[in-house]
């Protein structure tokens, strides 16, 4: 994660939040899928609800509806 997101404590917090949110989205991905999530600096101040919505929207764009 880029230092643009914040100091080490902030970067770690953002990474933990993203990991937690992604746990619910992984089952929606096809087997063998590799996913890279890049946190923008705004992620440091974003609410978890907003991060979750953004992640869900990204996965929905990448994975066609079944």
Radius of gyration from the alpha-carbon trace, in angstroms? 12 Å
Q: Globular, elongated, flat, extended or rod-shaped: what is the shape?
A: elongated
Q: What's the N-to-C terminus distance?
A: 32 Å
Low-confidence stretches are none
| Biggest sheet record | none
Q: Name the helix and strand elements from N-terminus to C-terminus, one letter apiece.
A: HH
Number of alpha- plus pi-helical segments: 2
- Beta fraction: under 5%
On the 0 to 100 scale, the average pLDDT is 89
Report the strand count: 0
Helix content: 40-55%
What structural class is derived from the secondary structure elements? mainly alpha
Report a brief summary of the structure.
The protein has 66 residues and is mainly alpha-helical. It has helices at residues 8-23, 48-62.
How would you characterize the overall build of this protein?
The protein is mainly alpha-helical and 66 residues long. It is 47% helix and 0% strand. It is built from 2 helices and no strands. It has helices at residues 8-23, 48-62. The protein is elongated. The mean pLDDT is 89.
């Amino acid at each position: 994660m880029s230092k643009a997101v914040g100091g080490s404590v902030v970067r770690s917090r953002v990474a933990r939040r993203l990991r937690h949110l992604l746990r619910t989205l992984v089952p929606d991905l096809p087997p063998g899928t590799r996913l890279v999530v890049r946190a923008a600096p705004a992620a440091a101040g974003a609410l978890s609800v907003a991060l979750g919505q953004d992640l869900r929207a990204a996965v929905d764009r990448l994975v066609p509806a079944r």
